[in-house]
Design goal:
single chain, 14 strands, binds biotinyl-5-AMP, SH3 type barrels, five-stranded antiparallel sheet, 10 helices, 26% strand, seven-stranded mixed sheet, 3 domains, BirA Bifunctional Protein, domain 2
């Protein structure tokens, strides 16, 4: 109902709408209208009220509130249920709990701040309050097998690059899960899965984007290698619009993968990749023997694994097992 009232206020532009009209259009009492307006104000919306004219929307909060994201959505499933909190430990942890409890396909968990945001191997993901896009999407893909989960990370990275482009920011993908702007990390993606033998119960794709983060906001240890959309664009970005657009693109790519398989997604990934064709240093995460090696990244295979040519022959690096760094020139 609050979203409906907001939509009505927005449709008036600079004009006013009376409490009576809101009540009659939405089929609620005038007292209910007043209560919802109070709640919207508490959530940060600036709503002017004039006794003769009614209500007028003066400003919206810079928050990833469900109503703010929803107004940019063109999706059927993604983001049709949004779980918002001002702060939480980790949206991926929340999403996994919700998914295990039966949350619907496409549910999105979003927050302004994480106390324990994390990446792979329990590494931290840092984002100051109210400046990033921190969210996790629950998917229940019937069309994919458990061993295909890494491809969802690649798909998400392609979506992030496209969404950034729609905001005028050029980015590229470093295999497997980083989106870089001007060679610096702007985004991390963490895909987690619950599966039985042949079927995926759910996949959680966690995405952390530095949207309006300022250089001074980054902790010392990542400052040199991190950047944000704002730093690249030279101005603040509308976070809710960005998240809405990202969800739209994600859903389009998921539909495409369902219809045509992952091949076109992997091609899009290849086009956006900044890893392929480069000399790389691979640091295996789970491999006991010979975990670190160097070579040239030449392609990804049908499972999204990175193929690296080395003097000893080609090596295949599975998603999630390695991080890649440009080789230092001697
Ligand atoms: C990632 O891991 O890059 C995946 C990060 C996923 C975060 C999202 S936020 C929403 C959802 N909820 C979660 O709890 N997680 C997901 P990895 O490739 O392991 O990289 C982690 C490394 O990135 C850290 O060790 C730092 O070096 C660096 N890092 C941390 N915060 C950063 C930031 N804001 N910008 C750039 N680099 C950062």
């Amino acid at each position: 109902m609050r979203a409906d009232i907001l939509a009505l206020l927005r449709s008036m532009g600079e004009g006013y709408v009376s409490g009576e009209e809101i009540a009659s259009r939405l089929g609620i009492s005038r007292t209910a209208v007043w209560k919802h307006i109070q709640e919207l104000r508490e959530a940060g919306y600036e709503i002017e009220s004039r006794s003769r004219n009614g209500y007028r929307l003066m400003g919206s909060p810079d928050r990833l509130l469900p109503a703010e994201i929803e107004r940019h959505l063109q999706t059927e499933i993604l983001g049709r249920h949004i779980v918002y909190s001002e702060s939480t430990q980790s949206t991926n942890e929340d999403a996994k709990k919700l998914a295990a409890a039966g949350a619907a396909d496409g549910t999105v968990v979003v927050t302004e701040f994480q106390g324990d945001g994390h990446g792979r191997l329990a590494r931290g993901w840092f984002s100051p309050y109210g400046k990033g896009a921190l969210f996790s999407v629950i998917l229940r893909p019937q069309f994919a097998l458990p061993q295909e989960a890494p491809k969802f990370t690649l798909l998400a990275a392609v979506a992030v690059v496209k969404a950034m482009k729609s905001c005028g920011v050029e980015a590229g993908i470093k295999w497997p899960n980083d989106v870089l702007i001007d060679g610096k990390k702007s985004t991390g993606i963490l895909t987690e899965m619950s599966a039985a033998m042949e079927c995926i119960n759910y996949i959680v794709i966690g995405i952390g984007v530095n949207v309006n983060t300022d250089a001074a906001d980054f902790p010392e240890e990542v400052r040199k290698k991190a950047t944000s959309m704002k730093l690249a664009a030279g101005h603040s970005i509308d976070r809710a619009r960005f998240v809405g657009e990202l969800l739209n693109i994600l859903e389009r790519l998921l539909h495409q993968a369902q219809r045509e398989g992952f091949a076109p997604i992997l091609d899009a990934w290849r086009r956006d990749s900044i890893t392929l064709g480069q000399d790389v240093r691979v640091i295996g995460m789970n491999e006991a023997v010979d975990a670190t090696f160097e070579g040239r990244a030449v392609d990804i295979d049908a499972y999204g694994a990175l193929l690296v040519d080395t003097p000893q022959g080609q090596r295949r690096v599975l998603a999630g097992d390695v991080s890649i760094r440009p080789q230092k020139k001697a």
